[in-house]
From TrEMBL:
Organism: Acer negundo
GO MF term set: nucleic acid binding; RNA-DNA hybrid ribonuclease activity
Protein name as catalogued: RNase H type-1 domain-containing protein
UniProt domain RNase H type-1: residue ranges: 39-163
SUPFAM superfamilies listed in its UniProt record: Ribonuclease H-like (SSF53098)
InterPro entries from the UniProt entry: RNase_H-like, RNase_H-like_dom_plant, RNaseH-like_sf, RNaseH_domain, RNaseH_sf
N-terminal signal peptide: none
Length: 177
């Protein structure tokens, strides 16, 4: 399925009308030249409940290189956030041209980012294998980093995750260009 088709169908569904209340907005900022940014998010309607993970990989010009949106069953919010980071890292590591690039994985979950980056913390036991794999990928690909950014800077990824949790996920799509 072409990325342009998915983007046309996502235009309206990735807007969250609940966010009309006044908040401190932080807009998406592109990565530096020759760098890539993978914005990821996880979403759970109830704790635990139907969950989705998603991500959007963009270059310094804002061009979308990859999208993913997946339903991941019934999970809690920390699990979905960890799985979203993990999926982005797996996709980057498995693509030879991306694996050589400097990639920032950006999540709106301070907890998931902390567990992924902290050498001594693994979250709960249920996350152990996923966190260990995240740390293994990070040590193998020193050009990959994981950062926290507020939800408003991750709005597109947030909208995709809500679709994934409702069972409307579309899988993984790489750009043709």
């Amino acid at each position: 399925m072409p990325i342009s088709f998915i983007l046309l169908n996502l235009k309206e569904s990735c807007v969250d009308p609940v966010r009309l209340r006044k908040t401190n907005l932080v807009s998406w900022t592109p990565p530096c030249h020759d760098c890539l940014m993978f914005n990821v998010d996880g979403y759970t309607r109830v704790q635990p409940g139907p969950a989705g993970i998603d991500g959007v990989l963009r270059d310094s010009k804002g061009h979308i290189l990859c999208l993913f949106s997946l339903c991941v069953g019934s999970l809690d919010s920390n699990s979905t956030e960890i799985l979203a980071i993990h999926k982005a890292l797996q996709l980057c590591a498995s693509n030879p041209s991306i694996a050589l690039s400097k990639v920032s994985i950006v999540s709106d979950s301070k907890t998931a980012v902390s567990w992924s980056n902290n050498k001594d913390s693994f979250g709960s036991f249920s996350h152990l294998n996923t966190i260990l794999d995240i740390k293994d990928i990070l040590s193998s690909f020193q050009n990959f980093e994981i950062f926290f950014r507020p939800r408003s800077a991750n709005a597109f990824a947030d909208g995709l995750a809500k679709r994934g949790s409702s069972g409307e996920g579309f899988g993984v799509v790489w750009s043709d260009s």
